[in-house]
Design brief:
Elements (H helix, E strand, L loop, with lengths): L8 E5 L4 H12 L3 E6 L2 H10 L7 E5 L5 H15 L4 E4 L14 H29 L2 E6 L12 H20 L5 E7 L6 H6 L11 H12 L10 E3 L5
Parallel strand pairs: 1-2, 1-4, 2-3, 4-5, 5-6, 6-7
């Protein structure tokens, strides 16, 4: 097994969800120490179990990453324990559908919190740490909807477009420092939740979380040192 991330510390926020779990397990398999944030204890326990012997390199923190103060505490505790943070993958996100004039304002606010504020709170806390180290990789999970603004997903598309713009500007701000910032743009990922939500869809065309995880790990690796400020489509034929 390739151990590209031996000696590296990765923070995977939302690291127990459909995509986050695959990213977490992939990093562990390649030698990284991984800290994940989660909301549900049973999801963390399931990832720890799935990691097998690599589970010894996994830590979990129950943190709401839309809360800036909580994020600051999280990063401070990671630095106090490990004295470094090499990688941030933000896989926190949510989806809400509905025509703009029919959408509940709370749903709009939730999309902004999960899809934009999470990345904002994390980036503004993590970027200074990585700038001080003169190295680091940040990957934010945006969406195909950040570019493809379809009917019935106004709040979701707006939040993902904002998330992409946020990372693009951050990439410009840290250019030449040794810190790299990129986004990935999935469409519908083949997760249990999505299958339940769309039982009549053709799942075979949906990208697997493990496939997207491989792209994310590449972007975080030294092999991708030339890639900075990119928005990488990871939706295959879907």
């Amino acid at each position: 097994m390739n151990m590209r991330f031996s000696g590296k510390l990765a923070l995977v926020t939302g690291g127990t969800g459909g995509l986050g779990r695959a990213v977490t397990l992939a990093f562990l398999a390649e030698g990284a120490k991984v800290v994940v944030t989660y909301q549900k204890q049973e999801e963390f326990d399931a990832v720890k179990s799935a990691a097998g012997k690599n589970g010894a390199s996994l830590e979990g923190r129950r943190v709401d990453v839309t809360d800036e103060a909580a994020v600051r505490q999280l990063i401070e505790s990671i630095l106090a324990q490990h004295n470094r943070l090499d990688i941030l993958v933000n896989a926190v996100g949510g989806f809400a559908a509905g025509k703009l004039w029919e959408l509940d304002t709370k749903a709009f606010d939730l999309m902004m919190a999960l899809n934009v504020r999470s990345g904002y709170a994390l980036a503004r806390t993590v970027a200074p740490v990585m700038l001080k180290q003169k190295s680091g990789a940040i990957v934010n999970v945006a969406s195909k909807a950040a570019l493809d603004h379809g009917a019935g997903v106004a709040a979701y598309a707006a939040s993902k477009a904002a998330a992409l713009a946020l990372m693009d500007s951050l990439a410009a701000e840290v250019k030449g420092t040794g810190v790299r910032v990129n986004s990935v743009l999935p469409s519908i990922i083949d997760t249990e939740a999505n299958r339940k939500a769309m039982p009549n869809a053709d799942f075979t065309k949906w990208p697997k979380p493990e496939e997207i995880a491989r792209v994310i790990l590449f972007l975080c690796s030294d092999d991708a040192k030339l890639i900075h400020g990119a928005a990488v489509p990871v939706y295959g034929e879907s």
